[in-house]
Write a structure and sequence with these properties.
elongated, alpha+beta, single chain, about 80 residues, about 30% strand
Amino acid sequence: MSESNEVREDVMSEDDVIVRIKDLHKSYGDLEVLRGIDIDVPRAIEEIEKKDLKAEDQSEKPKSDKTKAKDNKPKEEQKG
């Protein structure tokens, strides 16, 4: 990757961003591992997660009445 010293203007508006981190720094003792990081997490990520959760909910189908009845019987009766 090539390094760039260009300062990028914010591309996303406030309404498009669900999380915005500006000038993040992190160090462990004398070791600086993050220096002035800017991160925007777009709201679209939230929408994707909602769609994934909705798809999971739809894929979980309740058991049929026959299966429920069989599950309620003692184990001895289920074998036969």
